[in-house]
Amino acid sequence: VRPLPFPQADRLVSIYSENPERGWTRVNISWPDYLSWREGNRAFDDIGIWGWRSFTLADQDSAAQRINGARVSSHLFQVLGVQPQLGRHFASDEDGVQRARVVLLSDGIWRRRFGAESGIVGKTILLDGRDHIVVGVMPPGFNFPDRGELWVPFQVDASVEGRGGRQYAGAIGRLKPGVTFEQGVADLRRIDASLAAEFPDANRYWRSQAMRMRDDLVGDLQQPLKIFLWSVTLVLLLVCANVANLMLARAAVRSRELALRSVLGASRARLGRQLITESMLVAALGGALGVAVAWWGVRLLRFAFPDQVPPYFISLGLDGTALAILAAVTLLTGMLFGVLPAVRMSRVDLNTSIRDGDRGGTGARSSRLRGLLVTAEVALSVVLMIGALLLVRSYRNLHGTELGFAEQGVLSARVTLPAVTYGTDARAFEFYNRLAEQLRRVPGVTAVGHGQGTPFSGWNTSARVQVEGMPVLPRNDRPDSHWQVVSPDFFKAMGVPLVRGRWFAAQDRDTAAPVVLVNEEMVKVAFAGEDPIGRRIRIGDGGLPPATVSGGIRDYRHYQLPQPMGPATYFSWLAFPWRGQSLVIRTTLDDPASLLPHLQAAVRAIDPQVPISEVQTFEEVVSRSLWRQRLQGNVLAIFALMSLVLACVGLYGVISYAVAQRTRELGVRMALGASRRTVMFMVFGQSGRVVLAGIAAGLVGAFFAVRIMAALLYGVEARDLATFFTVPVVLAVTALVATIAPALRATRVDPVIALREECRGRQAEGAR
């Protein structure tokens, strides 16, 4: 995670609204609340406000294009500490209602669309059908918010300028020098308390929500990144344990050689340096290979991140600082696990080593140490495997969630009509009706609808609901309902069934007495489960007239999983024709994306200056909505598989070495009557003790470690018994397989040869 590209970024604070009573966080703010925070605070140098905005950029030479951006207060970029590379910021008198048509460009759009023209400042471009003067170009790499590339002065929407109109995305403040983040939060809380007392109807349950801007931007990625870091650390420890075992075994096998070198004049320090050098050489070669693997791994990882991840604070590449740190870690681990066998060898009696070196004996203490290392490997593997299995199961549960709509065979796209050329309802009706008619003629198309927002698109507009005939509640105590405007065929194209009443009809055009559809959750919350058909409800604070419920639809998932839909109300587009709509096209074709050329041709035939954006199939939408959970499960599963392989390799090495060291003993036992089965069980018993001890330690460690993953899980408990049972069984079976080869080798020892070698050894001892 890169540092934010702003001066003194640690002083930047993102400010939203929150409602602790209802558990709502990071809610849009209202204009009056923002003014109160800005004018009444003592902790901030300044606070700026911003709101989401997208634009249609069109000219004679290029096709119309939809560009994401924002409307920002004149001083917001000064708060961030960012200066334009060309031109100027917005002036204070350019804020307000329709005062100035000026625009700031990003470096990217300036280069792509305008060829990095040096004289762009002062020129006029066409945004949303209106002329706007370019006053500046922001520096390279600056995109706000997220991938925003165009900015216009902030304008207050007169329809939502009251304290209850929480329609603006958020605010950003810069703390005064010497003021801590905690002091800034306390200062905002002071203002919140006075607002709640002065405006109880609008602010009683509401308050500011401040967070460090870096935490705000990184958001939900923080926890997975921390888990990845701990997983990498565990895998590193596993590798280190294997390296330590390898070096101990090699030093033990070479004990006679090292003892002879010592007798011939080599000092213990010289021998230690040799072992450390060999260990560091292994580490350096492994580290170099690791960099090559990482280079390819990062290229693969990029495919797991969707386009929505802002590029200016998430870096997907081999960072120089990270490589330097990892080079140091590589050399440190190489040195550490070269020192271990060197220290062990420094304590070995030279006479014993020379006498027993041909038998490779190293003593029970060394064998116990290698066994403990393998036990640690097994324990770490258990922790990683349990964590991975929990995340994979969580992803599968999310992926299997009942969505409430049929995602197969649907193509969606965003179409926004410029206000200048489509300022009347009649023009908007004409465009969308012609578009729908042309699309319905395309072979394979079965339904065409449109609404303000499709599932997982980010559309989130809500308002308070009051049902006529029910007790009148204070504004803040009324149920909250998602609402939007949809065409009559919107839900047919979505595949959402009607559960009661009727669909919208062609006659549902009356704006004074509109009709609405409600979902099942709305019936439970607002109507206490009673039949809502024919009942009248009021949405919001008077901006919309009372509406009559004409039908009810099944609940479907509109927000990002696993968030439920909640109460929802839908108005007929025939009565309230919004210009910006998301098309939903249902087809019987195997590939809904093949409809894109037909959609583009239909829009061009009607108006080539209308852009098409956000084109994707519903299956792509659902898949992208789960990219974080999928990435978390896949990455941790790879780490867990690596840990399992490493643990089994370590176990195989230790058992194989132990069998090799006990060749004479096993041969003598077999010569004295021990069966091959008895010998095999002896080997399995040694392996089993190591594995069972590791599994027990790993289960204890996992019991505490999985608590940090609880927030990432869905549909499975952090301490799920099935997971805690499955992992030890899988690991035990895998360990058993890893022990089969050494066990079979032990049963093939020739007792005669073993006895002959034992006699020679005894004779040599007697001669000495």
**Which outline best applies?**
elongated
Number of contiguous helices: 22
How much of the sequence is in beta strands? 15-25%
Query: End-to-end span in angstroms?
Result: 66 Å
Which secondary-structure class do the elements indicate?
A: alpha+beta
Which sheet architecture does the biggest sheet show?
6 strands, mixed, barrel
Task: Report the strand count.
Answer: 22
Poorly predicted runs? 358-362
Rg over alpha carbons? 35 Å
Q: Averaging pLDDT over every residue, what do you get?
A: 84
Spatial order of the strands forming the largest sheet: 3-4-9-6-8-7
* Helix coverage percent: 40-55%
Task: Give your account of this protein's structure.
The chain has 22 helices and 22 strands. With 768 residues, the chain is α+β, with helices and mostly antiparallel strands. The strands form 3 sheets. The protein has a 6-stranded mixed barrel with strand order 3-4-9-6-8-7. The radius of gyration is 35 Å and the shape is elongated. Mean pLDDT is 84; it is low at 358-362.
